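User: Continuing from earlier, I have the next pair ready.

Assistant: Great, send them over.

User: Here they are, in order.

Assistant: Folding the first of the pair now:
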Amino acid sequence: MLQAIKKFMTPYMQGEMYQDLDKEQKAIVNEYNDKIHNGAYKTEEVACLCGKKENTKLTDVDRYGFWHPVVICEACGFMYATPRPVWEVLEEFYKSGSYRKVYGGVEFEESKYEEHVNNSRMILVELTDLLVVRKLQSVFDFGCAGGWNLLVFKELGMKVSGCDFDPTLIELGRKRGLDLQIGSFELLEGKRFDLIILNHVVEHFNDFWKDMAIIREAMSPNGLLYIALPNMSMFGCNRLQNAHNYYFKRPHLDFFMRHIGFKRLSTASMFEFQDFFAIYDLSDDILMKHLEHEKEIFKGFLRRINILK
């Protein structure tokens, strides 16, 4: 399967095409693929977030060799995974610890905790003025991992909390005095927060429209939403991961967010354009024609690097 990725290597790709895997990681990949192909793991076909079903396939596997078909929508140019594992399969993948074992290594998070905290200070820098003006008091980090994004807000005296599936990472944060829980959307029911952080989480959502509507319902009237994502304007097959259902460029994120009642207040690239963030509150209008133009530019790029004919 790794040969299927190697054929896409070009000077335009950023970074390594895939990580070298150890014996345990390779076994996880092989077991996952076997369960997909023998039907033990159920899969589903989905349409683009714009509602259209016409698409062109870009690849069948991710950078680790996991089965991961990714397509580009012929209507709007959005990239997404289809067919894909049903949510129960991905939920098991996260909770089992396989996700961390393959993506980062077992000991990675403890040894890099302070580095994560330092990176999180960038979130605070971008939000500081808005926090002061709006007098925001509470922060919830959805998909918080070890809680490193929350420590900088706790230092300001804000009430912080978060959730994640991985019990090992949750324990890392709890040891540092953070209010973290194992779970997902059910933990937001009936609660309101001034700031919700979705740091490399939205690409994992199973149902963007439903999941984002729950997030919106959990925001206070004066609240803010911070989203950070891989920047697919820096496209390369090395950026594909089997746990990612959606691959966003900024025009697509703005367009889809508008339809659930958000407008973007600010945005910028991070880490040499590999990622980007956006801060949202209420809705404005973005026309479909913006996406049509973006689609043609991106498809021209894919043709130049021989991924599309």
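And the other member of the pair:
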Amino acid sequence: MTIPYQWHNKTRKLSSSPLSVTDKDLSILNGKPFWINDKHEHKQEFIRTNGNCCFNHIVGLPVKNNIQHPMYDYEIKLFKELFSINGDFKDKHLWVLKSTGLGITEFFIRVIGWLCTKDDSLKSSQVSIVTGPRLELAITLIDRLKGLFYNKLGIVFSNKETIIELNGVRIEAFPSHHLDSMRGLANVSFILLDEADFFPVGQQKEARDISERYIAKSNPYIVLTSTANKPGSLFDTIEREKEDECIYKRVKLPFEYGLGKIYTQEEIDKQRQSPSFKREYCCQYLGTVGNVFTPMQIDEVVKIGQQYKDIAISQYTLKCVGIDPGFSSSKTGIVMCEHVKDKEDKIIVRYCEEFDKTDPNYVADLLWDFHLKYMNVYYLIDGSNRAMVNLLKIKFNEPLNWDTKTAGPNNMTVIPINFQTAHKQMLSHLHQMVAQKYLVIPEEQEKLIISLRTAYTKELSLDKEQTSYNDLLDALRLSLKGYNIK
């Protein structure tokens, strides 16, 4: 539920007013359940209390497109993950990967409002809501919480824009880039990280670390919600954690949970036309759509790749292996392409893999195996990692006094490339290969395809934060530098 401009303006004008919440204002909510799941019982209680049957009917049901919505089964599922029937906690740490538009943020704002007003158990505690890096997001979420108590009950709060004092509970929203003041709180009872998969990378880890440090201190509820972002982000990391090592109860809610409830079939059919549908509605870590290639170009690359994938690798064709060696914060990407001369020239991706913090000797042995298995293989490697280049050159019995300015296939098999000076040209070359349908990629190379779909540039340089599997994309660029098809 969004807050109308008029209400947001009114809260600003009344911020200096002495009017604030009193015990009498909130007494109607005391002892009320969040929702009564039994429809018959709920109807009877609604009639008996003249609509004051539960928290959600008292403050007003959620509204979307001017239509009131009850609590749906997927929301009841989330409630039951956190609370038992009598309101006691069950799993206090909850991870929710969800389709956009399901109303999950609204749901947890209501849960926070209910927890603060059903009794006095949270008095003198703090609730922290962490949003993205923009202050406006924090203000908007607090406005939505204030709006719950204004719309039907007419209660106005005198707190500043990012804070609300509710029944003795201090609720404060923090932008993800300004979490220092969240570190020293004395008694945190609830932490909500909203759309946490879209916090900037460094802020994702900090927000998680600060939240989890309170487990031993005050044992708060910790709830992380988000639509999917990209591979390797916070939510992907938590989802990959082993069951016995993860502190979160993990719940995934793709669009099917809201079909016929919050979405119509017509709305979903229309959304399917969007390139971001699988990420926004199907909980897939695909990253944001990039600006280097069009979805149609990549679809064509994959479609043709399927036609070529069953052609056996030939000993007589040129194979180029691109190697982007990993440093402490990055992975090692390896991509091998083959120049297939069938009815027309094609460069097909034959191997694609990334390695995280892998022993360099293992990588060198793997690349040596390509040499043993195939003829006409050249290795194009980022020359900035001189140690990895030399390790390979020792394998291939090549001199170690190399220079990227004189490196080439005429005098070496392991060819170091000055990535710093060549990266823009290599990106342009990759774009040409895709646009002219020379490069083809079988659909099983899913990571590389996602990397192409999310490839994003700023001033002709690849934006590594926005591009998923960027190490593989760099390896592909290096591999393609071995081909010059006109």
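Worth noting for the second one:
Residues 5-282 form a domain with the Rossmann fold fold (CATH 3.40.50.300). The chain is about 35% helix and 20% strand.
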